[in-house]
Amino acid sequence: MVKLTWEKKTEININLVKLKQKYSNFFEDFIDTLSFSNEPIVTKPQFSSWKNKLFWGENLEVLYSIVNEFENKIDLIYVDPPFFSGVNYKIEILEENKIYDSIAYVDSWQKDLDSYLQMLYERIILFQKLLSQRGLLFIHLDWHASHYVRIMLDEIFGENRFVNNIIWYYYNKYSAGKKNLPRAYDNILVYSKSSNYTFNEIRIPRKKPRKQLVRVNVNGILKNAKDENGHVKYRTVIDKKLDDVWRIPCLQPASKEWTGFPTQKHHALLERIIKLGTNEDDLVADFFCGSGTTLLEAEKLKRKWIGSDISEYSIYLSYKRLLNYQKNHQKSYPFNLLTHMDDEKKKMLNTGFFQKDLSIKRKK
Ligand SMILES: C[S@@+](CC[C@H](N)C(=O)[O-])C[C@H]1O[C@@H](n2cnc3c(N)ncnc32)[C@H](O)[C@@H]1O
Question: Is the CB–ligand 1 distance for residue 271 below 6 Å?
Fold first, then answer.
């Protein structure tokens, strides 16, 4: 089998007993420390004590802390990690009358591809463990590293678990290139845990209705259907099966869904992914959740969810988006906010960070 290697590639050995000892009480719920509670009226299903989970922290620690409880239990994992783009994503924050700059997240890696690959490798091994037998992993990348990661996924999942390389063609993003063609797509690599994964058919409208031959199965052979005069029969089709090239725009700042978080993905992209790979009440996770797009779409589609991010601005935005949605809609499950509390976080919480009314803007 072909395997990708890099300097200091370290195979990780997951010892569930040791992880349980070290991480069982690592993350604590801090919703109670906020001056108001997000405890919603639970409308459905009353018999379940499930709570969705939003972790503020390093996702490797989050994965270590949940792997005992959630091994083979997550039905869909979508991740949109740093792409090895070399960019540090800046934001401008407006708080009351003050404006200050901060970093949403860093993707520079000091040009060290090895450490980037090792970071993903360790996490993908845990994603594979967490997926249920009917589960799918969607890993969103671009031209910088997707070719390496595909080989890594073959190693971890097995080549025969490759499902698709979805091309997200974002036709509306201007991407300069003097000595190359403008780059206009991302890759979303899809792998399954077993051969028995959930895969719902999605149909999309055609630009124009089309006449199509009616086919019938005659003793296992497909033949053209004919009318009583012996003429072949046609039907008009207005939609078609979704293929692996998805034409969805990049989210624009004018959109009402826009949060200001750099690299926020379009809600239509996540809606499609979740509908394709899960059914109602299935469990969806995003361990690089950014502004919380996956979690919000999972919430809207009545799936359970787990999310995490290391950045306080991500958690702030995800929390506000979810809370806002839950205020205006019938909710399925309440959610917990969890973190590994340290002095810095305590200080932030004491300043009422999550109660603030911040306006966040991507900064070029
Ligand atoms: C490309 S953004 C995700 C954007 C998201 N899909 C959205 O629609 O808003 C990547 C996110 O990964 C987070 N991240 C990077 N490294 C992480 C780590 N080790 N643990 C947790 N989060 C991490 C960053 O803070 C950032 O929010």
Answer: no
